[in-house]
Amino acid sequence: MSGSESSAPAGQAAPEALSFTVHSMPQPSLADRRSRVLGGRLRLLLVLLACAAPVIASYFTYYVIRPDGRTNYGTLIQPSRGWPADLALQAIDGAAVAPAALRGQWLLVTVGDAACDASCEKHLYMQRQLREMLGRERDRVDRVWLITDGGTPAQALREAVEATGPVWMLRVDRAVLARWLAPADGQALGDHLYIVDPMGEWMMRMPADPTPQQVKRDLDRLLRASSSWDRAGRE
């Protein structure tokens, strides 16, 4: 019989048609949204802390714990000082050098004018000597000569300074530089060697007329304390 296959058997009710009800999705409350935002920020903060932990630990070890109860030869700068935003550097050939180019290495800095008197020459020689004394760690340290006038160092001096490797010879405005580096009371800016960390923070000043062996001891400690996060060369 036509249509008999779709008919319900005798004595049984026809099946009801299926129906679907669509419910709207629950909307998160304002409190839920704030909680999610806060949770995201906390996770980001934890990631940043994890990245910074090696640096913090090395400085804590050096500044606070100080194994063996030893004292520093140089003066720690606390808090450390980043270079001024308007610090402009210029190479000997006149090319502009971005301060950020110096990041990534420990810097051993001397300051003087281009004529470079006997004290300046002594510091430049000591820079070279200290870097060589560091042995296999020397590639983590760069030498920097900040020249505080518009002159050009004598060719013979430049060749002597670079005899054991390149040196950053950079002209800089003395007034701007004085907002970053500072001498001890009663001393001139050029009387000291300065140590700048790989993040560009001035963090130590050596005494006037320093003893190389004492300076090296401080450098050894700094390099050892930062060995977990600092590597030779720039990224």
Task: Give an overview in words.
This protein has 235 residues and is an alpha+beta fold. The chain has two domains: 28-70; 74-225, Glutaredoxin. Helix content is 33%, strand content 17%. α2 (118-133) crosses α5 (212-225). The model is unreliable at 1-6 (pLDDT under 50). The chain crosses the membrane at residues 44-65. This is Cytochrome C oxidase subunit I. Keywords: Membrane, Transmembrane, Transmembrane helix. InterPro entries: Thioredoxin-like_sf.
What secondary-structure arrangement, pairings included, does this model have?
Blueprint: H1 30-65, E1 75-82, E2 89-91, E3 96-97, E4 106-112, H2 118-133, E5 141-147, H3 155-161, E6 168-171, H4 174-177, E7 193-196, E8 201-205, H5 212-225
Parallel strand pairs: 4-5, 5-6
Antiparallel strand pairs: 1-8, 2-3, 2-6, 4-7, 7-8
InterPro entries: Thioredoxin-like_sf
Keywords: Membrane, Transmembrane, Transmembrane helix
Transmembrane segments: 44-65
TL;DR of this structure?
This protein has helices spanning 30-65, 118-133, 155-161, 174-177, 212-225; strands at residues 75-82, 89-91, 96-97, 106-112, 141-147, 168-171, 193-196, 201-205. The chain is built from 5 helices and 8 strands; from the N terminus they run αββββαβαβαββα.
